[in-house]
Structure formats: C-alpha cells, structure tokens
Amino acid sequence: MSRSSRFRAAVSRAGGPALGTWIKIPAMEIMELVALAGFDFVVIDLEHSPIGLESAYHLIGTALHTGVAPLVRVPGLDAGIVARILDAGAEGVMVPHVDTVEQARAAVSAVRFPPLGARGVGSTSRAGAWGALSRADYLRYGQEEAVLIAQIESAEGVRNAGAIAALDGVDALLVGAADLSVSEGRTESDPEVVELIAHAVKQGRAAGVPVGNAGGATVASVRAAVDAGFTFTMLSNDASIFGAAAKAAVEAARTVKPEQ
Fold first, then answer.
1. pTM value?
2. Which amino acids are annotated catalytic?
3. Could you tell me the sign of the dihedral formed by the alpha carbons of 21, 24, 29, 31, in that order?
4. pLDDT single digits (tens) 114-129
C-alpha cells in the first residue's frame, strides 16, 4: 500500500492550470458535487468559514473517496491543528499571511517530521490508513508528498516571496490579491498591486515551485491567471458557484410567461 499526492500530479500536468475551489459549506454532498464536476483539488477553508475540525475531517474523507485532492487552509499557524488536519488525511495545508522566512520556517516545522520539522507521529490515523500503511510510507508521505502552500498577502510577503519559496519544505505559493490590495490601500487592478503580484509569481517560479491565485469561475478569469504565470487557480468557492447557478436557473425560469 502506498499513497501519492493528487495535487502534485495536477500541478505537474501539462495542458493547463490545475483547477480548484474553496469549500466553505460543511456538507459532504457539496464535496461529492465538486468532485463530480471534475475539479483537481479543493481547499477546505477554516479561515473564512464556520467549518470546524470535525466537519473538515468528514469533508477530507469524502474528498479522498471521490477522487479530488483535499487541502485545508488553516486559520493561522497552530502546529496542533496542522498535525490533526494532516493526520485526518488532508493532502496538505495552506497557511495564510506568511510574510517572512521565519514564519515560513515555523510552518515547515508544523508540517514536516524530524529532522526537517517537529510534527508528531500518528500513523494509526487516517493518514496512515489506520495503521495499515507502513510507518516508513506514512513518514515518506509526510516528508515528500504532503503539500505546504504559503499564502503571500502583503508587500512584505512579496519582498520575501523568493526566499519563502526556496525554503526546504515549502511546496507552493498562493498570492492573495484581495488582502494584498487592501493592505496597500489600493484595488486589485491598481498597477502597483499588479506589479507586486507579478513579482511574487516571478520569484516563486524562479525558485521552482508552483504559484497559484484565487479568481472567478469564468474562462476570462482562468485565461488571466494563465497569462499572469499562475500554475494553479481557484475558481470561486462552493457557495458562490452554487448560488450563481441557482440564481441563473430562477432568472431563466422567470422568462417563461403564460401564453395570452
């Protein structure tokens, strides 16, 4: 028995960016629908949703069984939460607001086993197939396959993006344009913000790691992400996608009038 990362396979695949979406609704049926839609990965959002650890645990299990790679954005860097999320079977974690190399190093410590990090061993968890996976494979997956994505969401983070991306144990960057623009008191389309984003992408790619963004669920949004150099992109979120579909259905239905 062995395990490999579907997220890593998706970002390495030729022919277009890996496609993901945020999961904000704590319902297993949502995860099933997202998987059936064909997404490569999801990010279960513990930062900007009411999802708790137990709900995340059920969502991770559903994702694994339906073939979509489950990542989890933790609300902040808490080594205990990171360990529990990874042992719940998540393919990796996304850490928000990574501004410095020191913060990135602390994230690596939470995600990786010794000697690279300080994560505790829990191989009788789902991540270790309840003990059916050998200790060696459990440790190998945690060191080599589990994904650590650092979110770059400030000008300071952009300045340090290259060094953060080059840190052993960091696997990808996600540029958070919304927080970056707000922190600068500008809009996301402001030339200075666009330049900051471009610099973060350039630094991450130069370090040899995938760089992603969060955008809309449109062809234009994905085209803009590809043109900007992103190798994975988040297509909106479950609530917005299903809300838009419901609204479109009602609006279409309202066009039908009784025959006179």
1. 0.95
2. 48
3. positive
4. 999 999 999 999 999 9
